[in-house]
Amino acid sequence: xxxxxxxxxxxxxxxxxxxxxxxxxRRAADTDAEADKPLCAAAAALALYRWALVRAAAEPQxxxxxxxxxDLGGVSPEAAKKVWEQAEAAAAPYLRxxxxxxxxxxx
Length: 107
Hints:
Blueprint: H1 7-11, H2 14-27, H3 33-58, E1 62-65, E2 68-71, H4 77-91
Helix pairs in contact: 2-3, 3-4
């Protein structure tokens, strides 16, 4: 839905969605029903970001020939990354922070 793909087109990228959901579920700190919507939204945004990266690597998004510039549209990886970052921030209360480590240094 976020990428605007038809059901048939989206089926090709099911593995990206499954992987994003598994990654989000592994980071989930809370499993109550209140966490379901933000975690699902974060997983969808992560799948969108990965889809945009795959698409950008496989197909040119724009090209120019002389003074004529053609933009094929779609979701840019940069825009998709921002969507992912915002969705991850919204889901932060339900996610473990795996990027921070606090330790005491002994003399």
